[in-house]
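Tokens in:
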């Protein structure tokens, strides 16, 4: 099944979603301190506007911006709202969903934090309204579930989600 929208995510056990702007500050505390997988959705149906410069932070001196808009256009996946799949706590790590999503949001606010995965999210206009949905995974390694979701997505759409660069 290729994930196209939040309804399909709910069928997979994703119960909670919140807009990026709702998770800034105290809103982050609604996310559990558990391992799991998370996704980013863009609900708008029209083609996105790509920003010439990313809002993401420069970590270790690396500029997260893609200067050629044609690269962003080529990476865009039509027919789905899902633009990124990530995980927290995989392979025995103690990192939680709350911690990882908090880093993702801080990175998108221009902070110098380590979360370059999903960096293309922050070069799409309207990213503050994107939905982040999460699913704790207590019985399954989040890294394995993330990999399965990425492979499934690629099999259904012919490429990875817009803001993912590789599987695993």
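Residues out:
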């Amino acid at each position: 099944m290729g994930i196209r929208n939040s309804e399909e995510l709910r069928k997979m056990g994703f119960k909670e979603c919140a807009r990026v702007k709702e998770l800034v500050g105290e809103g982050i505390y609604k996310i559990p301190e558990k391992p799991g997988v998370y996704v980013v959705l863009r609900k708008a149906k029209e083609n996105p506007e790509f920003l010439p410069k990313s809002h993401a932070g420069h970590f270790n001196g690396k500029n997260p911006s893609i200067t050629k808009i044609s690269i962003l256009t080529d990476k865009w996946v039509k027919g789905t709202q899902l633009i990124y799949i990530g995980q927290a706590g995989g392979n025995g790590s103690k990192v939680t969903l709350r911690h990882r999503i908090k880093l993702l949001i801080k990175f998108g606010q221009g902070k110098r934090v380590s979360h370059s995965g999903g960096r293309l999210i922050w070069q799409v206009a309207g990213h503050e309204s994107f939905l982040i949905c999460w699913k704790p995974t207590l019985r399954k390694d989040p890294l394995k579930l993330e990999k399965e979701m990425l492979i499934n997505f690629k099999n259904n759409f012919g490429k990875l989600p817009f803001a993912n660069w590789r599987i695993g």
